[in-house]
Amino acid sequence: MYIVDSIVTVPEHKADELIEVYRNRSRSVDKADGFHSFQLLQNDKKPGELTVHMEWLTKDDYLKWVRSEDFKRIHELEKKYPDQELANIVPKVNKYKVVAE
């Protein structure tokens, strides 16, 4: 298993707006080879901190996704998001290999 967490921090008054964006996401990643799951997590103590948590069967599956045309298309759309405060967010990405369960 391979896990990728993308952590973003937005002003607290924008958190619900970003949550709604993810609730209405395209779900194209769900069809990618090796995709296992997606969750959007909200920090309990810092509501403006959100983590996109994705699980993949292998690192190679994840790398195929990030190199895909679908990935590029989705991330280009994010740059065109009407709310520039949200469009300019740069996530902190952490990647993990599951070593024990």
UniProtKB/TrEMBL annotation:
GO MF term set: monooxygenase activity
Enzyme class: oxidoreductase
Keyword Oxidoreductase: yes
Record keywords: Monooxygenase, Oxidoreductase
Domain of life: Bacteria
Pfam families: ABM (PF03992)
Domain annotation ABM: ranges: 2-90
UniProt EC number: 1.14.-.-
UniProt cross-references to InterPro entries, sorted A to Z: ABM_dom (IPR007138), Dimeric_a/b-barrel (IPR011008), Heme-degrading_MO (IPR050404)
Protein name per UniProt: Antibiotic biosynthesis monooxygenase family protein
Species in which this protein is naturally found: Thalassobacillus hwangdonensis
